[in-house]
Design goal:
Length: 77
């Protein structure tokens, strides 16, 4: 969506990655993230968001995201 918005408006969108912890099946990266931050997520009710500059180094590889949303409740139905 952000690409289309920028294309039509010439405005740089603020991008939030909500997909990294969605359970699309086998995803070792997702499992590693949830295992590593399970305690922090539990303290925050299962969901937390943060800006890209506050992200762990393992998430800074994609400069197109401005923020991230983690959640433990992301099973697809």
């Amino acid at each position: 969506m952000g690409y289309q918005f920028k294309k039509h408006s010439s405005i740089e969108p603020f991008v939030i990655d909500q997909n990294m912890t969605v359970n699309f099946g086998q995803n070792e990266f997702r499992n590693e993230l949830l295992d590593k931050y399970a305690g922090d997520l539990q303290k925050l009710g299962g969901t937390a968001g943060f800006l890209a500059e506050e992200a762990p180094q393992m998430l800074r590889d994609n400069p197109s995201e401005d923020a991230f949303l983690f959640s433990t409740a992301t099973e697809l139905e």
